[in-house]
Write a structure and sequence with these properties.
- There is one protein chain.
- By secondary structure, the protein is mainly β.
- It has helices at about 65-70, 245-250, and strands at about 5-10, 20-25, 30-35, 40-45, 55, 75, 85, 90, 95, 105, 120-125, 130-140, 150-160, 165-170, 175, 180, 200-205, 205-210, 220-225, 235, 255-260, 270-275, 280-290, 290-295, 320-325, 340, 345-355.
- It contains 2 helices and 27 strands.
- The strands form 7 sheets. Strands 11-12-13-14-27-23-22-17-20 form a 9-stranded antiparallel β-sheet, with no helix packed on it.
- The radius of gyration is 19 Å and the shape is globular.
- The mean pLDDT is about 95.
- Bound molecules: alpha-D-galactopyranose.
- Alpha-D-galactopyranose (GLA) binds next to β24 and β25.
Amino acid sequence: MRGTIRKQSFGKTVGGEPIDLYSLTNKKGMEVSITNYGATVVSIQAPDRAGKTADVVLGFDTLEGYESGKAYFGATVGRYGNRIGGGKFSLDGKTYTLPQNNGKNTLHGGITGFNKKVWKAKEMASKDGESLELSYLSPDGEEGFPGNLSVKVVFTLPAERNELIIDYRATTDKDTVLNLTNHSYFNLAGEGNGDILEQVLKLNAKKFTPVDQGLIPTGELRDVAGTPMDFTTSTAIGKRINEKYEQLVVGKGYDHNWVIARAEGAKGLTLAAEAYDPKSGRQLDVLTTEPGVQFYSGNFLDGSAKGKGGKAYGQRAAFCLETQHFPDSPNHANFPSTVLKPDSVFHSKTVFRFSVK
Ligand code: GLA
């Protein structure tokens, strides 16, 4: 036996569409639940150093929570993860106007992003273990973006390794822009178990992209050295978070894109981040083919959303490590391109690897 996959009903949307919850298990003590509503990771059970499992991601017990939620818990974010400045970009000489849902900017794909869509599910057996493929066809013009975009996200839990592998593929019939990510909120001590300020983070990045007041990158790639953005050595998330460094003030904490260090021209999976909870011993390594990672320290969580078991998730109750292309890339020629053309297939991969120490 390799692992198991179990499907159960997760209720019906307000519009009456039936939604399912798929639970994947492996042989190393992990269980991951994913719903086809928003292609959302609902729970990740991972063992601590004593072998005791806890759910290490924020979320809701019911579909209703996800339908009304505003924080993107566990969701697949698209078409464009993070912000597009002024809700505008031009491509091939044409200007596209997007809904402004975050001040005057567009955040996480617009008003009804991929996180609020019903995806088609297919259970698959891969050579590694159990997989769930979720697909969605985003029509031309949806939330202002050009092209019919066909997206497939495959979630795999290998039977013998404690990893959640997320593999994204997309094709379009018109030139478009695309930035897909997963918005899991991690608390390695277990969701609802206090804040993440004593959890330790290391980022494989020497530079980050500073932002303006609206959290739009200015275009600068700034060295982290000598700033509280320097996570090149393992540092507690809370150690410098309240410093008066201008970037931390505008972000209300960490809410920035770090530029993952890679050898020139290297593609493939690279270690982007390592997070560790000294108390439970849980470690999360994030590997990705993407050029950036948004480290968000849960600054906007305010306890108003009642999560699993009715728990109120307060400020900094979790951190996100959203692997991505840089925010607002369509408006910055010096950033890696997010343009997808009809003759190519978009492919991106991220691995959340769990261990203990
Ligand atoms: C991203 C953004 C944050 C915030 C969260 C969702 O991480 O950068 O500013 O909007 O998503 O609440």
